[in-house]
Amino acid sequence: MAAKALSFDVGDYVVYPKHGVGRVIELQKQEIAGCSLELYVLRFEKERMTLRVPTNKAESVGMRKLSSDKTMREAMETLKGKPKVKRTMWSRRAQEYEAKINSGDLASIAEVVRDLFRADDQPEQSYSERQIFEAACSRLARELAAMEEIDEPKAQEKILDILRAAAAIYNKEKVPA
What we know:
Blueprint: E1 13-16, E2 20-32, E3 35-44, E4 49-54, E5 64-65, H1 69-80, H2 90-103, H3 106-116, H4 127-148, H5 152-174
Antiparallel strand pairs: 1-2, 1-5, 2-3, 3-4
Helix pairs in contact: 1-3, 2-3, 2-4, 3-4, 4-5
């Protein structure tokens, strides 16, 4: 019983959970250890990386098409929410954030971006917080850019504008009148 493989065409943008948005550049047939395999050849421009994924494993590794407009809207709404600051040790939070980013789930990535964003008038982030924030923000921006057919810096600016507007609202709540 072979699972129905996901179908992607050459030129399609896809999301690979651990690497983000890539493009199918080729469908290949290769013989590996005496077995004939069909492979998707994915290109990740930002990382200058090429990845080969067996077509029958695409679903099990979590490879998917770009999110729907509805899912992207939900992720953008998540950015507008109040940041949740957990009081657990940083190492544990960092692991949770990394797991959310690598899940490939847009809403989870948006939560990480929201929770780690710092407005200009807020305390500085540690180096590792900044790294995780930038990784999550970049992952979200690349999918937004591919969906809206804009470049990544424009998508990132759109995300940051939403975060700044939300921070302005939530920072006012903290200031005693």
